[in-house]
What we know:
The protein has helices at residues 8-44, 47-61, 67-81, 85-98, 103-115, 119-132, 137-149, 153-166, 171-185. The protein is mainly alpha-helical and 189 residues long. Helix 8 packs across helix 9. TPR repeats lie at residues 103-136, 137-170.
Amino acid sequence: MSVRCPNLKGIVAALAVLVTYSLPVTAQSADLQDEAELLTALATADDAEAKRLDRQLTAVWSKSGSAAIDLLLKRGRDALEVGDIPTAIEHLTALTDHAPGFAEGWHARASAYFGAELFGPAMADLERALTLNPNNYNAIFGLGAILETFGKDGLAYEAYQRALALHPHHEGAIQATERLKTQIEGRSL
């Protein structure tokens, strides 16, 4: 028994397009659910568990859904790691140009700009990253670091507190709040 379909190629092509464009949306929805679960667990985790959850969140946030974009992020981060800031900025600028909706690209480029002491562009990229992903406690911490650099200690302290509300074991935010606590809250008599 056979079924004749006059436009089989067209149907198969349409189905392939439908499946192709449906997969990233499904994967992104699963990541968002994972992110929410991971953030909830992180808020009450002990130190060891917090490190594991932090790695998982970083992995979730680092998935763009595109192998090419993920490669640009890796290359940018690798360049940052070895101190090659101009190369990092080049890779991460290509990333943000091609994937403007990928929050981690903006966050990574903000880190590169901060390393180059280009604080205005770093602040703009953090604003974009946090608009796309307001739960990225590392970006919030970066915002605090820039504010502290400009002597805006009260605002920096608030940013560090916000990062700690999401990730109570964030070492940089803990150290920063301890450093600024006396200035912000005053000394006890």
